[in-house]
Amino acid sequence: MVEIQNGNRENARAWFLYSATDPADATLSQSGIPMTYIGLEESLQRVENVLDATTCCARDHQDDHDDNDNDCFVGIFGFSQGAVFCHLLAGLVEEEQKKKRSSPTATTTTTTTTTTTTTTTTTIQEKWGRIRCAILVGGFPAMHSDNDGSSPSLEDLTLPSLHIMGRADTSVLATQSLKLASRFHDPQLFHHANGHVIPQFCASFTEVLRFVEEVRNQKKEEQNRVTSTDKSL
Fold this sequence. Notes:
Shape: globular
Oligomer: single chain
């Protein structure tokens, strides 16, 4: 996260910058032109630190209660540029999941001596996989491109997503939010009548809660299927 000078706004913050010469210049942010986001690595590191903390929280909580239902649930919520950042995070989640699908879930090494047999299992570690869903408000598609070409794909993302957009939004048009939604597989949409704001009314809160609960229930069903399969083996 970087600090910027933007008119009369004090303590302005951004997840990244669009220009190396003028920190307040965002004129090309919605142009659709690939560019390198400045300061992005620092913001990714901050999110990674939070995810590491939630992993420790979940592990300690599970040790205390000895059940999977108490596992910490992580969703990401982004408004405006924050929604763009969430698009990038969803790409990292997708990249990690593809690696897991194309590789064995664990590598097992067995060593036998004359008296004992030792088996060591190494499990693939998740870096971004604790993120279960994304809620994106007033956002537009990310166009970040690393200089070395290592940026993750930002198309056909399978992370469950809810896209909230304002019909009166003149800062980020609803058409831009729909473009962002099109980058996700099976996105859910919610329109409100206001402008470039996080809507503060009952219908929007209800929709967010419904979406999160739906994703949580899907996750629990997946865990139950895995548990049932393990017990049958």
